[in-house]
Structure formats: structure tokens, C-alpha cells
Amino acid sequence: MRCPHCQKEIQVYKNPVPTVDIIIEVADTIVLIKRKNPPHGWALPGGFVDYGESYETAAKREAEEETGLVVSDLQQFRTYSDPTRDPRQHTASTVFTATAESHPTAGDDAAEAALFTEENLPKLVFDHGRIVADYFLLKKDTLVKPEFAEAALLK
């Protein structure tokens, strides 16, 4: 690749692609979407961060595009960056939690959107099974021992 102005060669770096995922709480459930596009299966709502967009804005946008929900109480949960987490390319996903008040409806690249409890979770694509397990573990730790919530985050 060359600079369009001086024609000097530009070193190209291959970096992970930034993405967001969002755990949306509706009462005592979380929202999952069934993906229209490969890899097919159930997943957390989420997607790629657009150039010039903050991660928080991307999470809210993806939530509304894929579930029809306007979320509130957005908080950063964790970042997941295993190079094999997405079979299409190396992504690094910042995961958020948020709340919503109504039932989700599928939109954008979601074939379905539904509410699930920890007890009736389907098999999830990507590393979303691990993300949701971490979320429920932290939620239990926080509910049982609030003074250890920060320590649970560091596990």
C-alpha cells in the first residue's frame, strides 16, 4: 500500500476488528437473537463498531436494530478477545449490560428475538456461552455477596 500523496510505502497492520455485544435484561430474563447470517444460531445482540462511533453508541444501535429495544442503564461488562472467538476473523468484543422494558422483536440481521432465563438457554454461537455464563456467575456473586462484586469481576 502506498501513500496517495508521496507514494511512499505504508506499513499495513493487521489488527483485531472491534465489536460490541449487549446483554439486555428484561425483568428476570435476557434477550437473545437467532442470527440470519453465518454463523447461524442463537447469540447476544451485537455487531461491528462503525468508524467514528463510540462503543456505547454501537451497543445501543445494535440493540435497537436487532431487537427493537431502546435500552437504558448501559454499563460496560467485560472485553473478550480470544483470536478464535469469531470464525470469520479476529474480533475483540466489548460487552455491555443494559435493561429494557418491553418484549424484543427481530430486526436487521436477526431472524428471531426471544427472552431466556439461565435455565432455558439455547446453545450459543461465538463465545457467547462463556459470556452469558460469566454474566450469570457475577450476578449470583453480586446478589449473594455484594461486598465481593468487584473481586468477582477480577476472576
What does this structure look like?
The chain is of the alpha+beta class and 155 residues long. Helices cover 23% and strands 31% of the residues. The protein has a single domain, classed as Nucleoside Triphosphate Pyrophosphohydrolase (Alpha-Beta Complex). Strands 1, 2, 3, 4, 5, 6 and 7 form a 7-stranded mixed β-sheet that branches. Strand 2 and strand 3 form a beta hairpin. It is elongated.
Summarize the structure.
This protein is 23% helix and 31% strand.
Shape: elongated
The largest pleated sheet is described as: 7 strands, mixed
What's the CATH first level?
Answer: Alpha Beta
CATH topology: Nucleoside Triphosphate Pyrophosphohydrolase
Rg, nearest Å:
17 Å
Report the count of strand segments: 7
Please tell me the CATH architecture by its name: Alpha-Beta Complex
Mean pLDDT across all amino acids? 92
Order of helices and strands: EEEEHEEEHH
